[in-house]
Amino acid sequence: MNHTSPTSGGESPTPLSPRPLHDRPGRGPRVLTGRQLREHGIGAAEAAERCRPGGPWQQVLPGVHLLHPGPPTSEERLHAVLLYAASRPSAVPAQTGPAPAQDPMITGLAALALHRFAAAPPLLSLDRIDVLVPRTRRLRSTGFARVVRAQVMPQPQQITGVPVAPVPRALADAVSGLSDACTVRRLLTEAVRGGHCEATAVVREFNEARLLNLPHVVDAVHALLAEGRALAEGRLYDLVRRYGLPDPLWNVDLRLPGGPHLGGVDAYWPEQAVAVEIDARAPRQEDEALRAQYAHKREHLERLGITVVRLSPRKLRDAPEQQAAVVRTALMAADDHEPGSYVVVLPR
Where is this region: Disordered (predicted)? Predict the structure, then answer.
């Protein structure tokens, strides 16, 4: 097929790209890299000619071309950013053995919009789209592409054919660029209340991103953990009712008679000496003393003959029947044990 440049004699220019390049039904947005254009027989000079002001194409990012003159759609912007990020090589040679995830993915506010967060702005309103790449990728932010680097790339989720960072990582990247406390709180609350992820996963990601030293983020995280605990407690109530477990004493403190405080538990069956704790903590790396305190509490209760069952918010959400079986097994096993030490049970 012959491809020629426009002539200066008033003749209509011969189209520079074949019909399959322009009209590809079902093949996604019309965004291609220079390399992909060359595979279609379009050289760099021809592509540059087509991208001149007033031309039928445009270069929207370095090495990435949009094959129509109007503004790009949301989908085309997403694909342009991903193509731009994928077109630059890594600065470190590939290692032998199984390769970790290396492909770029959408993150930040754009990812939250794809995850259908009501608190995230619409894709077309975003001046920049965050794209997550390995830290070794030789790439810089430019145009509407903002490069975010990851020490370890997460496993992406596919949303309408677009690789998207999981919600905890997308939240961390979004919040790193936000200073409005109300916006941060709305995003975090929706993440947990909307069932996108657990509060502990968000806080763990924020700790990795070193966001927990920012006052407006810390306030939002405290509210997030309270929200996550309230949801987990509600799921525990539902679990007891739905699966026919005997009613426990809810939210109580345990003490030895005339002795020290043993700690609070979320549910307690005094006849069987079985306690349930919801593990809604998100331990930070520096909280070794706190983790040791929790471990000491559990060991102390078990020495007194009290069985402690730890349930995570995620398991209460995703596998309630399995968690009910764990609690039921602990209650049934109590019949084979020596009676536990007498403890005083007080409302918490």
Answer: 1-30
